[in-house]
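Predict the 3D structure for this chain.
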Amino acid sequence: MARRKQSANSQTGRLRIVAGIWRSRLLDIADVEGLRPTSERIRETLFNWLSPQLHGARCLDLFAGTGALGLEALSRGAGSAVFVERSGVAARQLEKNIAALGATAATVRQQDASDYLSGRPEARFDVVFLDPPFAADLLEETCKLLATRELLADGALVYLEQDRSSPEPELPDGWQIIKNKTAGMVRYMLAQVEKDN
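Done. Predicted structure below.
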């Protein structure tokens, strides 16, 4: 749920699904200051990376905000997605958008991401999206929680998005960055968790 300035080419207050069964569907964005979806350009690249492993995957969209990443994953064949969002306004809009799409494999949890990870999540996840507010500097802490709580399936993929000027986060043992790009002021990366032998 990166909170950054609106890009010049995105439509204010609307989220467009890029591809899949809901391709080009426009969804409303909650009126929460600074709330913006991950750009279409970045989503297109990310889901090209994820394509081989996405079908049927159990996804977790932490700091969900608009839900752009989890909804895009469901549109492209993910098996399920859990959306965790602290803001009640954003969570309610996300629930409306999920209902409008008929996305029966989506679940919204209105709570803080660290509280969710410290509880008893529904499953071990194959794909996790981490796009916290850039100013909060939460990536390292969140990755450590994911690792210590054993919430990731063998070989899970974790998407990380941050301000380009921030140092890359220190990842838990057994995690490896396999993709790393920048677009404008955003650095986005894909990490893979090693499989147990």
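The two ends are 34 Å apart (CA to CA).
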